[in-house]
Write the structure tokens for this entry.
Amino acid sequence: MVTETILVGNGTLITLGEKNRVIKNGAVLIEGNIIKDLGKTDELKSKNPGSEFIDASGKAVMPGLICAHHHLYSTFARGMAIPGEPAKNFVEILEKLWWKLDNALTKEDIYYSSLIPLIECVRNGTTTIIDHHESQSYQKGSLDEIARAVEEVGIRASLCLGTSDRYERGKEGLEENERFLSLLSSRPSQLVKGMVGLHATFTVNDNTLDKSVWLAKKSGVGIHVHCAEDRADEGENLKKYNMRVVERLNSHGALGEKSIAVHCVHVNEKEINILKATGTNVVHNPESNMNNAVGCADVLGMMGKGIEVGLGTDGMSSDMLSQMRCAYLIHRHEKKDPQVAFLEAPTMLLNNNPKIVKRVTGWRVGEIAKGALADIILIDYLPPTSLNENNFLGHLIFGLVDATVDTTICDGKILMRDKKLVGLDEKFIAQKASQLASELWKRL
Ligand SMILES: [Zn+2]
């Protein structure tokens, strides 16, 4: 039996990875779910005459993008009216919006609210996400609903439930993480992996924290937790435990190369040194931090110390190129220095996110290289000035960021071609989501 192959050719191939190459009139050969070969189109075409050919003329061909922190469940907050005075601070944003929403989601809400941003991932060329789920109203079985949506849409996802003791349902959250991880180990999925989630240290007691760490170690995965997003997080930990957030996580063994500390806006020098010493991954979400007015994380300082800082959206969107541009702009603005962030913002997205995904899931993504997983996107882009390895970042930040994704391939399967989704009824899904959101808003 001959394995079917797809040849994407005639495009501007941007390989990324360690030896980033820009190959004009380049091609990439996909066999099954793996990248088999890359090079000049003519050469690959003559060697592989039987392949299905995708013409990438006028397009940049890049590895699929990665979101290192997402919240698929946040969809139904879009356009939702919040009664009373607008939230005055971060804790009020949680209490008036997010904790209300996540305490009202049904099984069906979780599935449909996941489908919408997953489709937006495909449309924006995001082929891998690390999601952090919360649904206090429906915890047991919630990760199955998200996994079902992920597999139907066809991108990759690492899933977890953010366990929290805020309504004394920490035990149930922990059990859901454990059930889902054990399901994945008995029935592995090509597209779905798991982590152990915690909401944040200020809503988690020591018992839940210890049990989560025990579960993570037993399952060979890391902890995915919001960390010092707002001053209130540090304040609560100092008041109750006489420790700062990172110190407390470390004292319970929650940090390490497979763990993700999200945000780290208010960590101090000592905490940064702990993150570095434990090899913990940090994920920066600049749009969300600006939206919640919590401050600007010193991620450039952390990167300078050698901490792996990746980039996420925190559920704000599924568009990683615009998030990267936001990271570029916020640090220039914050530091009032036009020499910073030109390298660091793309590094978070293009270098560090693939490293974090490799640590957390084992997937080799984020590069067009022989043997890597076949996650590839085609973006409409005719370079108006010369484009090569040395000036690629200028094209990325000022051009590609606003270009349209035309084709998305994940795990060797075409999920979108000529801007049309393959095998999904987008209109039906949006109508169903809208109907469920209206019912949820009424319940609130
Ligand atoms: Zn988050």
Observations:
- DSSP finds 15 helices and 19 strands in the chain.
- Residues 69, 71, 132, 226, 262, 314 surround zinc ion (CB under 6 Å).
- The radius of gyration is 21 Å.
